[in-house]
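Batch job 17 of 40 flagged for manual review because the log was empty.
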Amino acid sequence: MRGGSPQGRGCNGAKILLNVAPQMPSADTPPSISTPARRRAAFGVHVLTALGAGIALIALMEAVREHWAAMFGWLGVALVVDAVDGPLARRLDVAAAQPRWSGETLDLVVDFLTYVFVPAYAIAASRLLPPVAAALIGVGIVVTSALYFADRRMKTADNYFRGFPALWNAAAFYLFLLRPSPWLSTLAMAVLIVLTFAPIHVLHPVRVVRFRKFNLALMAIWAVLGVVALMADFNVPPPVTAALCAIGLYVVLADFLIRLFGAAKHD
């Protein structure tokens, strides 16, 4: 029969009712994620992250004018934004509330601008390197850093970075602070480029659990001293320079020192 049996029609009707009935949220999904307010707040976090790209543009404009301290000041603002948006994203569960937008991709794009591209321009255009080497070093920085950002194994299981972690904003800061001879500066930048893929571990001061409070305290001290250096246009007393250099060396060598003293303790 064209209409089917009464039993068949009953089964089809039940299926239709099931299909049109509103879907109940699963136990694993908080109902608040689907609310318009939560979605707007989550998208606001993405806007905050994207604001870092605008800050990078302002920093680059200051670099073109050779206002180096102002450039580093704006890059510092970008660091603050980068430090704030992650906890906000996790608190609001942005990935679930705004699944269309990839916060991870957005973060990588902005980080490349603020950690790599603008500092690379500053290093190449500052005349702190010989003209024949400046462009080559700049290209080397952006190319190797692009590869590093694409490396799915850039971090270890305990959240150390593998290799030099493309912190070219910090490298540029120390270049302007110390101002070594042009060829020594070139050698230092070239060594960091090579170390990008070296089998070394570099501390992530926030994510590494071991000695986290101590590491965060050191970063706070570094931030204060860094602001002092920028306000003085890098003309700071030797103790300030020494403290900034000591903290930078600790970040680079922390894993090596922990392993060295740990092995000595076991011996």
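Reviewer: the log was empty due to a logging misconfiguration, but the result itself is present. The first strand starts at residue 161 and ends at 162. Unflagging and moving on to job 18.
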